[in-house]
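Workshop exercise sheet. Pairs work together: one partner reads the sequence aloud, the other fills in the structure field after running the prediction. Swap roles for the next sheet.
Pair: D.N. / O.F.
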Amino acid sequence: MATDQRTLFVPVGNNPAQLFGMDAQTRACRIAENIGLEASDSARPSRHVVLANMDFAWDPAWLREISNRSGAALTLSGKPVLVNVPADRDAGAAIAAIESGETLAGYELIDAETGELNNEQLRKRERPFVMPLDPANPIVVEKAAYDGAYKGVTDILTLYLWRKPAFHLTRWAAQAGMTPNMVTLIGAVGCVLAFYLFWIGSYWLGIAAGFVFMVLDTVDGKLARCTGASSKWGNVFDHGIDLIHPPFWWWAWIHGLDAYGTPIEPVYAVMLLWAIVGGYVAQRIIEGVFMRRFGRMHIHVWRPIDSKFRLITARRNPNMVILFFALLFQRPDTGIELVALWTLVSLIFHAVRLAQANAAQDRGQKIVSWLA
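Structure field:
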């Protein structure tokens, strides 16, 4: 579609609040541009417009939803927050209603206090936040925006352990003017450093470098979503590193066992590595097959048990927990054996779940996410 045919996004009102290092209007416009709208300082005749009341802050999921529903208006306590004005209607009346706080007439009203959305990107059913934006207390909105950017289905460390510290790092990075790609790059340095330290058997320092990388791997995504700075390149950069590096870490860990003083027999070492890497790749293939067969739905959101197992499935973060506790007992060799075992258990679980989904569909059952 031509650029001049994009839906306009127009902030209504002025709010001096600073959110994630930028003024509220700038942030709102960046989020709008990021989802494909055209930010403008005013409505234009015969143009499709989404109006945003700057007395309020809202989750980007609401903006995406309202921008796709012509003639819809999101309200909070009866006051218009986001309004989708069709091209054949007068935006001036809607702007006047926003400025006066009056109820809109002739629009499909959606109450933010009762409305729910299914966020496929973040794998969760949610009621996205809408709240007044108080310039004197913006951290309340920042916290809500950060929480809203969190995936509903992920591993136990990301979901619980460093959720709070990553929030403060995200705020600091935004206020320092850092981009998500800068954070990803710093994290990538930590990732490579962890590989080297594992390789030479310096496991505690390697775990420290690895945990720094793992936390920053959370921060870059949240920074992108909270500041409207997501990009295709950033997504490829971030997810590319996530996808590729784990096998190299486990290879380096096995290599470092000699230097640490707990060597294992070479043939057995190769078997362990193949079990971990092969199991990791096979699980990724199963996930891809599941998504392809069942309408791009992630295997982790089919049933509650799948979401719960995702907390501990043999991915990088849970594996690092296993290695951390093994190292407490000075047995990194046992740790890597347990990682191999848990990888095979996880592979069997996901293979069984794929087979069960296929069987259910063959019986005529519709495969849908429990979040829906």
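Discussion prompt: Residues 221 and 235 are 8 Å apart (CA to CA). What would you look at next?
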